[in-house]
């Protein structure tokens, strides 16, 4: 076989091939560890994000310890009100965009989605006054547990290293009400801004009272 018949890729000069590999590596490093622009669609984040798929700026840097003044784990992790991208706990090959409603140690009263049953299990620990039942943080297999109040509501204590995620459109969102508290480790970044359409920086929507 003559050199002229070799596939074109094999005839690329070595310096050009090396430069191409370097560019691809830098691009991967930047989008994975610094920032990326990706579409985020669906009905669960209405009206914050359009169901048609807004393009958003996502970065993991806000949750890196070097960018936080405090050394505590809660300071480094997601905060209440943050808009984040996470691996889907139910479909690990997909990601979801949700709002952080609670962080570790918080106790949240939640009304589950009507007509849907949560897939995560709860076990009673002991019963207190006011018709409330407080549950252990985790079961015998280490799964996070929710707390239950007799009646319509559900009480959830967020275990260490977890957050509670919900969509802004709570009537049409599959979130922690379905799959329970989410490990901080599967959160891939914070949504900093909407890039297109109508560029908008997202500020903290949670106000102290």
TrEMBL record:
InterPro entries: LexA/Signal_pep-like_sf (IPR036286), Mito_IMP1_subunit (IPR052064), Pept_S26A_signal_pept_1 (IPR000223), Peptidase_S26 (IPR019533). It comes from Tremella mesenterica. This is Mitochondrial inner membrane protease subunit. Pfam families: Peptidase_S26. Residues 19-194 form the Peptidase S26 domain. GO terms for cellular component: mitochondrial inner membrane peptidase complex. Its main location: mitochondrion. GO terms for biological process: protein processing involved in protein targeting to mitochondrion; signal peptide processing. Belongs to the peptidase S26 family. IMP1 subfamily. Coiled coil: none annotated. SUPFAM superfamilies: LexA/Signal peptidase (SSF51306). It is found in: Mitochondrion inner membrane. CDD domains: S26_SPase_I. Keywords: Hydrolase, Membrane, Mitochondrion, Mitochondrion inner membrane, Protease. One of its GO terms (molecular function) is serine-type endopeptidase activity. Its EC number is 3.4.21.-. It is an enzyme of class 3 (hydrolase). The active site is at residues 44, 98.
């Amino acid at each position: 076989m003559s050199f002229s018949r070799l596939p074109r890729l094999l005839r690329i000069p070595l310096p050009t091939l090396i430069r191409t590999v370097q560019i691809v590596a830098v691009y991967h490093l930047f989008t994975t560890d610094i920032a990326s622009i990706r579409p985020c669609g669906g009905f669960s984040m209405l009206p914050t994000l359009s169901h048609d798929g807004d393009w958003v700026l996502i970065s993991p840097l806000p949750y890196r310890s070097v960018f936080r003044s405090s050394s505590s784990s809660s300071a480094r992790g997601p905060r209440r009100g943050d808009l984040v991208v996470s691996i889907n706990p139910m479909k690990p090959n997909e990601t979801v965009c949700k709002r952080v409603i609670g962080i570790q140690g918080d106790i949240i009263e939640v009304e589950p989605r009507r007509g849907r049953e949560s897939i995560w299990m709860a076990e009673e620990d002991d019963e207190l006054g006011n018709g409330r039942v407080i549950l252990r943080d985790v079961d015998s297999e280490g799964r996070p547990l929710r707390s239950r109040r007799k009646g319509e509501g559900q009480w959830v204590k967020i275990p260490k290293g977890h957050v509670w995620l919900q969509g802004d459109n709570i009537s049409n969102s599959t979130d922690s009400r379905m799959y329970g508290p989410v490990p901080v480790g599967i959160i891939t970044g914070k949504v900093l801004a909407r890039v297109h359409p109508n560029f908008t920086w997202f500020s903290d929507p949670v106000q102290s009272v």
